[in-house]
Amino acid sequence: QVQLVESGGGLVQAGGSLRLACAASTTIVSLYSMGWYRQAPGKPRYWVARISSGGSTNYANSVKGRFTISRDNGKNTVYLQMNSLKPEDAAVYYCTAFVNDMNFWGKGTLVTVSS
Description:
By secondary structure, this protein is mostly beta strands. The protein contains one helix and eleven strands. Strands 2, 4, 5, 6, 9, 10 and 11 form a seven-stranded mixed β-sheet that branches. It has a four-stranded antiparallel β-sheet with strand order 1-3-8-7. The termini are far apart. The model has no long low-confidence stretch (mean pLDDT 96).
């Protein structure tokens, strides 16, 4: 079984920063690729960032240069550092694990950005 729990969401002013965390119930963080998606009201869930088991990272163009995905294998935790936040970044952010062609999801954490 895989359980993922996101935290760190909240209200922030435009231009501010937040760090999201995704705590995993197992050592999957070190064994598999991990990622972040987000979903705004009335819109589909979109990919934001991914980190491989080897540490390579990829980002959506909309967040490139502002967001950083990282992991702490010892804590079985993945992070998303979000800087220079914009109102369009407001969404529920979900953590996912890519495990053998399957995706496991957390329940999400809400990020609100005020102008």
